[in-house]
Amino acid sequence: MSAAAVTGWVPALRKPSALPGFGITLGFALTYLSLIVLIPLAVLVARAGELGLEGVWQVATQPRVLAALKVSFLTAAAASVINALFGAVVAWVLVRYEFPGRRLLDAAVDLPFALPTAVAGIALAALYATNGWIGAPFAPWGIKIAFTPLGILIALIFVGLPFVVRTVQPVLQDFDREVEEASATLGATRLQTVLRVVLPGLTPAILTGVALAFARAVGEYGSVIFIAGNIPFESEIAPLLIVTRLEEFDYAGAAALAAVMLAISFLTLLAINALQAFSRRRFGDA
Amino acid sequence: MSKSFGQTAAVHELDLAVRPGELLALLGPSGSGKTTFLRLVAGLEAPTEGRLLFGNTDATRLAVRDRRVGFVFQHYALFRHLTVAQNIAYGLNVRPARSRPAKAEIRRRVADLLDLVQLVGLDGRYPAQLSGGQRQRVALARALAVEPRVLLLDEPFGALDAKVRRDLRRWLRDIHDRTGHTTLFVTHDQEEALELADRVAIFNRGRIEQVGTPDEVLDRPATAFVASFVGEAVRLPVDAAGYWVRIGPHAVRTPGENVSGPAELFVRRGDLVVSDDRRHSIPARVLAVRRTGGTRRAELALADDLPSVEVDLPADSVVGKGDVLSVMLATVRLFSSRSVS
Q1: Taking CB atoms and an 8 Å cutoff, what residues of chain B touch A182?
Q2: Among B44, B95, B127, beta carbon nearest to A284
């Protein structure tokens, strides 16, 4: 068999390698991704297409839809930023310090993954309601948490926490302590070391975690609807509108709304990826 | 500068006085506590006991960042997200605004240091784009930028290949002579220590066995450990009494009086010379002869059950395998077995 025959239909991509496997793994990856991700998404877009661009635009620009999209994306963005900060701190504590109960705490980080989201939503709603354990002390100050966008934020922080912790943890584990020591011997304070040396090293991992947490938060439904109150124009999230449409057998409308969410999410994730590529390059890994 | 420590297992009651401006090598096998000692000086470890003095000031309780030590790590520990110039300027940039030099001054200092470490033109590169030798030079420049009171190098050439290592060794000596920083460097490579340092401190099991010039540790080892660790010595179990040493079945008279009883004789190449003097020499059977450079090297057996020793012969020597030579001990390095662990 000639080399040309082996390279087949992707001669431009295939470089001769001592470690074969390119063809079979690429083929598998494409097939798998198509079946699981690409085809369902294509069907979604096709379904939305039944309304035509005009129709999709009309669905997306209804005041109630706009308000829901705003609630969904703003709370998701805020939750992922808060998770970036506190997730990084949790990861730091878990990696850097030995204390009793560390393993237990480490395991607890994954609980938001394991818990059925509806259960989490009910529990959070009970806790943060004006007569709940946590909600009650805030009530006299006029701060309502459950059944407001603040409640949505709490639920989204809850479901998104593991992402940042679990992406930052391994990077921090591998972080070279000598680099921090070098910074200290050069006269840097601890804060300067963390801000100038450690944080730049963790940025790509934190951004990955933020992207994952954001994606999860935008699509979160189960936990949010129990704590949100679902008041139109105030605490109604876009996924809830999609479900409402489905219940009214307005499949095209639901698909249109979903396609709009998909587009916004895709653009946001693309932006985060670009930021990540930039910080990786600066870090010298490119 | 003197200090003593008592840290469990790692370093035991060390006392070492470093002279201003000297280049001192800390030499020893791995796990002998030399790196721990260096980290104690830097303040990266806290001593359980003892004091550290810089001149007359007590620095034992001083935080790492206030000690003004330049530390160079074996694996460079450069800041990967900063350029070469930013790495070198780091120590100046983190100073509080009061004592931080002006931007132009920092730029000038960085340029001077780049010139010193021969990396002019690479200031915009990232560490990932440099070779190992270049990275280590950046690390040194970065440490020098803060004008350290003492420069500490932890196996600075350990991760580099032999050729680069030799070049950098010569270059480091040159830089030391020009800048005059008091320098401590850790190494397990005795050739490196002996070639580079003004004095060598030999570490073993958390203790210092001997501190001295390369000549002193080579010619007058204070302990059996130093005798066996420095220079390539063959260790022979012998019996000693007065002026006489019994090696296997032979007794040989030595120039000086010795410890009595079972002892260890450390024989380096060059310690043995061929001699006709019957009284001071012993017979040795030639096991093999090899030609190396300008000499002919013979491997000798002094007795059947002793390790073989080597002697250098003239290149035109006709000695062959199986011959018996008469050899004399020109240098005697003898330590009582009780002191040998």
Answers
A1: 71, 73, 77-79, 139, 142
A2: B127
C-alpha to C-alpha distances, B144 to A6, A208, B37, B69, nearest whole angstrom? 57, 37, 21, 9
| pLDDT at res. A2 | 45
Contacts of B69 in chain A (CB under 8 A): 185
Smallest CA–CA distance, residue B220 to chain A, in Å, is: 37
As a CATH number, domain A71-234 is 1.10.3720.10
Residue whose token pair is 């300067």: A192
Residues of A with CB under 8 A from a CB of B: 176, 178-179, 181-189, 192, 196-197, 200-201, 282-285
Chain A residues within 8 A of B75 when measuring between CB atoms = 176, 178
- In A132-196, DSSP assigns E strands to none
SS (H, E, C) chain B: CCECCEECCCEECCCCCCCCCCEEEEECCCCCCHHHHHHHHHCCCCCCCCCEEECCEECCCCCHHHCCEEEECCCCCCCCCCCHHHHHHHHHHCCCCCCCCCHHHHHHHHHHHHHHCCCCCCCCCCHHHCCHHHHHHHHHHHHHHCCCCEEEEECCCCCCCHHHHHHHHHHHHHHHHHHCCEEEEEECCHHHHHHHCCEEEEEECCEEEEEECHHHHHHCCCCHHHHHHCCCEEEEEEEEECCEEEECCEEEECCCCCCCEEEEEEEECCCEEECCCCCCEEEEEEEEEEEECCEEEEEEECCCCCCCEEEEEECCCCCCCCCEEEEEECCCCEEEHHHCC
Per residue in B31-71, pLDDT (tens digit) is 788 888 888 888 888 887 778 888 778 888 888 888 889 99
Q: How far apart are CA B202 and CA B83, in angstroms?
A: 38
pLDDT in tens, A186-232: 989 999 999 999 998 898 899 999 999 999 999 888 888 888 888 88
Of B63, B68, B340, B22, the C-alpha closest to B211 is: B22
Interchain CB contact of B9 with A (< 8 Å): no
Half-sphere exposure of A252 toward its Cβ, with a 13 Å CA cutoff? 11
Contacts of A172 (CB under 8 A, 6+ apart): A91, A92, A95, A96, A202, A205
Q: How far is A187 from chain B (nearest CA, A)?
A: 4
Contact B44 A183 (CB under 8 A): no
Please count the residue pairs, one from chain A and one from chain B, whose beta carbons lie less than 8 angstroms apart. Answer: 77
Residue B91 touches chain A, beta carbons under 8 Å: yes
- pLDDT category at A252 given cuts 50, 70, 90 is confident
Q: What percent of chain B has pLDDT over 90?
A: 18
The whole-angstrom distance between residue A147's C-alpha and the CA centroid of its chain comes to 23
Residue A185 and residue B42: Cβ atoms within 8 Å? Answer: yes
High-pLDDT (> 70) share of chain B, %:
96
Q: Is B80 on the interface with A (CB under 8 A)?
A: yes
Q: Which helix (H) or strand (E) holds A135?
A: helix A135-138
Nearest-CA residue of chain B relative to A192?
A: B94
Q: Which residues on B lie below 8 Å from A201 (Cβ)?
A: 80-81
Average pLDDT over residues B327-331: 82
The one-letter amino acid at A19 = L
Closest in A183, A188, A283 to B81, CB measured = A283
CA angle A12, A15, A17 (to 5 degrees): 165
Reduce the DSSP state of residue A232 to 3 states and report it: coil
